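Box 3.1. Reading complex inputs
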Amino acid sequence: MSRSASIKDVATHAQVAVGTVSNVLNYPDRVSQRTKDRVLQAIDELGFVRNDAARQLRAGHSRTIGLIVLDVGNPFFTSVVRAAEDAAALQGSAVLLGDSGHDAARESNYIDLFQEQRVQGLLISPVGDVTDRLDILRERGVPTVLVDRLADEEQYSSVSVDDDAGGYLAARHLLDLGRRRLAFVGGPTTIRQVADRLQGAQRAVAEVPDASLEVLDSEGQTVLAGRSVGDQLVRRSADQLPDGVFCANDLLALGVMQSLAMMHKLRIPEDIALIGYDDIDFAVSAVVPLSSIRQPTEALGRTAIELLAEELDSPDSAQPRHRAVIFTPELVVRQSTAGA
Amino acid sequence: MSRSASIKDVATHAQVAVGTVSNVLNYPDRVSQRTKDRVLQAIDELGFVRNDAARQLRAGHSRTIGLIVLDVGNPFFTSVVRAAEDAAALQGSAVLLGDSGHDAARESNYIDLFQEQRVQGLLISPVGDVTDRLDILRERGVPTVLVDRLADEEQYSSVSVDDDAGGYLAARHLLDLGRRRLAFVGGPTTIRQVADRLQGAQRAVAEVPDASLEVLDSEGQTVLAGRSVGDQLVRRSADQLPDGVFCANDLLALGVMQSLAMMHKLRIPEDIALIGYDDIDFAVSAVVPLSSIRQPTEALGRTAIELLAEELDSPDSAQPRHRAVIFTPELVVRQSTAGA
DNA sequence: CTGAATCTTTGAATCGTTTCATTGGTACGA
DNA sequence: TCGTACCAATGAAACGATTCAAAGATTCAG
């Protein structure tokens, strides 16, 4: 077990000064081809790998960006993470990923860790109230971009998706199919996402004179909750049934679909057109492929990095512009709302 | 934007030497209560946060462990990751997470990054052939533990799950229910996991005189692939049908289940008992809750960290013992194989 | 009161980079 | 031939922590 080679070892081996080795690494243009070759060969022969701690200590900042998400298991975040990593790589940064798991304590631990690591900046989908901590970070020159959460005040940049627009899109689609008796299935409206999606749907319905929207409360956002709503629907008499159902997320929609499929009384999409939200992988492989609203996760991740870069680039004196970028979701039509 | 306070600022503010501040941080017992109080107060007032780069430079190693998984979106890995993070936190380390996404280039980038960061050790589910790189790391005192992959040679520690045992467990369960005409549904047997699970199933069947096992090849491991296998089954005459089906993973099983449910000719579990593998979240909320084989993901993650710690603790001279820990999976019985 | 033993505190040296003022060379026009 | 640019290469200083030998303070037995 041999200690790693340092830049000094490389310098000795290549018979140049340490500063020259550093230049080869960081400003290749400043070094003549001959010298560069010698140095690169020495690096290769010694298997030299730059010690990032030393570089960072001298440079005063790292090349890493902290990213704290609510749940890496959630495909939405997985996709955001991957896009952020790719975007960061393009600008020469690496992403340190933390999963808070909706736990404020874990979240706080990650902020500690990232602060000790002197990350350049922080992307976060906050669980708890972290504004105090973010204020301190900003004061020290570490900017934050909120992800999937509109900044309360205008103090932070943020990227989010317009859930109201998504709700409108879904309801509008059902209306365009000629459906008029719509139902919205969604968990507690205290969840902002659910409330916004409902509001968007109501907006769409209000635009069509003879259309109505019924709200079916669900207990949570799971397949099982969806199934219990579906079971209620199946028991209704035909004249009481909606002809278009919009679920606040795909899991709910899959649950509703399972109920209807099991009972074999109501057909999708003929009797009831069904649309979900999120466009999870399972949507396409459901018994009846499910229409859904897709969120531009790649754009979210990429833009979050870009906003961060903007703040990092802006000179200290100039107060950085905080920008709130809001994306518009997209309708994905499949068989569950197909046909006239 | 004020620069962060350094240990020197703290020392000045508390009117002590820098060494004393360091001692307060690292060896509190060596410092008198009075001094400690003053220093802690200064730390608080200045909002001092230790610069990990400097500590690491001096200490020669970091307090982080690199973890590279094939796909953070896969619940299996998500769970492993979380367990590893928790276990690492207990011993005062943090985990740097990398997602290779089955891409050898990304994997290699993460190894580079982690090497620059001078991680203490590496946990990895390898995609490409990384043995050369791992050898170099080990030579430099950075041990590796393979995750979900048995080490080819005896050069590395590893944690994995016994897929043969899992296959045996599943088939045995169907046999115990009295089923005799079994079928195995699984993707290309070039995938080690699939081959092992099949082999385990064959072992179980061989133990029961009048039992048989038919192998149904699937194209991939998706819900859709499962559905196409299910469609084939539905078209068969009754005397050609299996009465127990074991799928190499839950997605396949869900696809098969959808086919049977749609056709409404065959009932689960009465006509066909169905069992999957992995116990994903969707298994419990399927139309008919799906029996499955659960892998001890938490134990995997925890043990991987423990094996790494073992190698780190063993003195350099003593050749570290490489241990291959193999876990046994667990049967989870639900409605899809319920009843006599 | 003295000397030894123990407990605290000190501060210079060190880790491996990057930075930058300085030096040494080379080329070119006058 | 000289002076002026320009280009490459040099190497000491600095970043912020930890370490450790040494100094200083305190305690206590005799």
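In summary: The longest strand of chain A covers residues 64-69.
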